[in-house]
TrEMBL record:
GO cellular component: Golgi membrane
UniProt keyword annotation of Cell inner membrane present: no
GO BP annotation list: protein N-linked glycosylation
GO MF annotation list: glycosyltransferase activity
Region of interest called Disordered, as start-end residue ranges on this chain: 378-402
Name of the protein described by the UniProt record: Nucleotide-diphospho-sugar transferase domain-containing protein
Source organism of this protein record: Ophiobolus disseminans
Membrane-crossing segments per the record: 7-26
């Protein structure tokens, strides 16, 4: 009996110790418990936006090694079959929007209030907002890095002169930096830059790539030619690759208006077309050591939009027929930018949904058996004339009428 009592007392003591320990554990500081639970390496977390977008559009992304691309409209385009860029570059690519306009006003993207996209204005901060949406989602789909760079005004220079110095600041951290104007949209969100680089012939030593500008006329005089009468390159879409030549080139372009290296360049501080004309007038001649150092992208690929010539022939007869096959630059049609961005996103989403539905069609696509129609029609005929029966009126079955 005594032994039994001792056993119960011992068991009670152990129970009290365990209860005390448990109480102590759960009375720890909440922050300590939070760290233990939330930072548990085995705890799953919700995916971020980047992972979500990557997964969502993975099924439609075009393989950069596939030399053929067919657009939703049925056009087929080709790239170099001996491709240089056959693997995703990911975060080695930066897509950047550089602007002095900051979209923090009413109904603009960096304003924390809810954005009303339907009524987004295509001027000023509204145009910049639209650009960020289109360029950012493209970067997310392909795993590129993205930045909006709020640049400061440069005294006595047009605001477009911000581009050279921002490029020079950002490029040491990346292999490629790609900048687009606010009125530029990517039309095929499924098509990676790597494929476009192959199409345009960018080599491993290429420094920059820019599209030929549209040929515009005022009277019988072209306003799209430099002093050597070569058509200028458009800086609305610029690709720069990080190498020693590019760094020297950007230094020269940034400092062009100082005239230490290029006498006469100060003329383009505020005269149209500013840094674009300075690049074509001086930089491209000074640095194009090989045909691939500065690559000229076809105007039809990266300037204008479908119907560009027809839309602007009255204003500028003889204007180039540049359709923006891949990069659409709405220089003369900024009111069309929002629709272009919306269409690009909806095309990509439609492609994803179509593939998903076709893959799951056995469970989603319900087809009524042919014999079921015969059974229904037979039942209707048997019930004709009876009060409360079913009749077919204009092909629609409904309650019978007396």
């Amino acid at each position: 009996m005594l032994a039994t009592q001792r056993y119960y007392l011992f068991s009670l003591a152990v129970f009290i110790v365990l209860v005390s320990f448990t109480f102590f554990f759960f009375r720890q500081d909440e922050a300590v418990l939070y760290e233990k639970i939330v930072k548990n390496p085995y705890r799953s977390s919700k995916p971020g936006l980047r992972d979500t977008i990557l997964n969502l559009f993975e099924s439609i992304k075009h393989d950069p090694t596939n030399p053929h691309f067919r657009s939703a409209a049925g056009q087929t385009y080709t790239a170099d079959s001996t491709s240089t860029w056959n693997k995703p570059l990911g975060k080695r690519v930066l897509i950047v929007d550089i602007d002095t306009r900051v979209p923090t006003g009413a109904n603009q993207l960096l304003n924390p209030d809810t954005i009303d996209f339907e009524h987004l204005d295509m001027h000023g901060g509204g145009l910049v907002s639209n650009a960020i949406i289109n360029h950012y989602i493209y970067a997310l789909i392909h795993g590129y890095d993205y930045k909006f760079y709020q640049a400061a005004h440069i005294p006595e220079h047009h605001d477009t002169w911000i581009m050279p110095h921002v490029f020079r600041e950002l490029i040491p951290e990346y292999q490629f930096v790609v900048a687009m104007d606010a009125d530029v949209t990517i039309s095929h969100l499924d098509l990676p830059l790597e494929w476009l680089f192959n199409r345009w012939g960018l080599a491993s030593h290429t420094s920059m790539a820019l599209p030929w500008d549209t040929e515009e006329w005022r009277g019988n005089v072209s306003i799209s030619r430099d002093s050597k009468y070569l058509r200028v390159l458009n800086t609305g879409f610029v690709v720069a690759q990080n190498n020693p030549t590019t760094l020297e080139l950007l230094d020269a372009w940034r400092d062009c208006t100082s005239e230490l290296r290029y006498p006469g360049c100060a003329h383009w501080k505020e005269n149209w077309s500013h840094e674009q004309r300075a690049f074509s007038e001086y930089i491209r001649y000074d640095f194009n050591a090989t045909p691939e150092t500065i690559v000229s992208i076809p105007c039809d690929d990266a300037v204008g939009w479908p119907g560009f010539k027809a839309d602007n022939e009255d204003v500028s007869p003889g204007i180039s027929d540049c359709n923006g096959n891949f990069v659409r630059h709405y220089t003369l049609g900024k009111d069309m930018v929002k629709a272009a961005s919306s269409n690009a996103v909806m095309q990509a989403v439609s492609d994803v949904l179509q593939r998903s539905i076709l893959k799951e069609q056995e469970s989603m696509w319900v087809k009524e058996p042919e014999h079921a129609k015969d059974v229904v029609q037979s039942e209707v005929r048997e019930g004709e004339g009876e009060q409360g029966g079913e009749v077919v009126v204009d092909g629609i079955m409904g309650p019978g009428r007396r």
